[in-house]
Amino acid sequence: MPINDPTDLLLADQLQSDGRMSNVELARRAGMAPSAVLERVRRLEERGIIDGYEARIAPKQLGLTLTAFILVRTLFSDGTQQGQLLADLPEVLEVHEVAGEDCFLIKVRVKDTDALAKLLKEQIQTIPGIRSTRSTIVLTTYKETLRLPIAGAPRPK
Q1: Is pLDDT above 80 for 149?
Q2: Of 21, 32, 97, 106, which residue is 20 to 30 A from 112 by alpha carbon distance?
Q3: Of the candidates 60, 106, 52, which has an alpha carbon nearest to the alpha carbon of residue 79?
């Protein structure tokens, strides 16, 4: 069930921009008591609206300087097993089943082109049912976010 309560939208929006925001600061921005905000956030978590919390690590600080998008074509119309096997690879950040000639679009982060070649040859192309891959290497990233646009979220107080 989508959220449409203005206070819940505000809380979700604020936590999305700073998941480490204290409950007291969140309550101040919402113009509410900290106990009421804590209860609302718990309900958002229970409903699966807040899906989790995580730290964003700078990929370059881990030596992961190459980002690539790979189109994957399978031999089967139902590639559920291949999709799951792709998702299980640590270098694979995203797996999307797509419409069109290809079956999946995946996003990977690796050290360099040698690491990409190794990932393709030794892991992705050895998955049973994978027919072909086409890679596009990212030269420059202008925007990369997991932050969703929350329409109707009021401004903090």
Answers
A1: yes
A2: 97
A3: 106
Q: What share of the chain is helix, strand, coil (3-state, %, to 5)?
A: 35, 20, 45
Predicted TM-score (pTM) of the model is 0.87
Take residue 18 and report the two structure tokens written for it. 């700073």
CA angle 28/52/90 to nearest 5° reads 145
Q: The tokens of 150 are what?
A: 């929350």
What would the pLDDT profile of 16-37 be if each residue is shown by its tens digit?
999 999 999 999 999 999 999 9
Q: What six digits make up the tokens of 130?
A: 């994978």
CA 123 to chain centre: 22
